[in-house]
Design goal:
nine-stranded mixed sheet, Immunoglobulin-like
Length: 139
């Protein structure tokens, strides 16, 4: 798509239906000798907003979302799409994550990086902190 014809952003991060600045890891009891509790990020929605200025034709783009926990060398790649009908100027590329395990040991606050790409072009990059129950209770 030609430069100046489309803009993107913001990237919004939601958890349990609310826009958040940090994510909360949810504990769950497990039967394990190594760790009595596992953690996951639940009900997370990543949404990159796109706007186009020439809308006479339908628009469809394959978009890749990379979710990275750099501290732990862990990365997830999710494919999503953005489609707009002719005449439609706004759309979004959404990644729904019902449950992502984040059972990194030892348990401590960390950062999740989110990147959205169209082809090889980086559209948006954002970092969000992850807090565990013990950190939230101390606040």
């Amino acid at each position: 798509m030609a430069a100046g014809v489309m803009k993107w952003g913001p990237l919004t991060i939601h958890q349990n239906g609310q826009v958040v600045k940090s994510l909360r890891a949810t504990p769950a009891a497990v039967i394990s000798s190594s760790a009595p509790v596992a953690h996951s990020l639940e009900n997370v929605r990543l949404s990159l907003h796109l706007e186009r200025f020439e809308c006479n034709e339908p628009f469809s783009a394959d978009i890749k979302c990379v979710i990275r926990f750099g501290e732990f060398g862990y990365e997830l790649k999710k494919d999503t799409a953005c489609q707009m009908r002719a005449g439609q100027t706004h759309g979004s590329a959404v990644v729904e994550a019902t449950c992502m395990p984040v059972d990194f040991q030892p348990v401590h606050g960390t950062v999740m990086e989110v990147e959205y790409f169209m082809d090889e072009e980086l559209l948006e990059k954002q970092s969000v902190s992850i807090k565990f129950l013990s950190q939230v209770a101390a606040e």
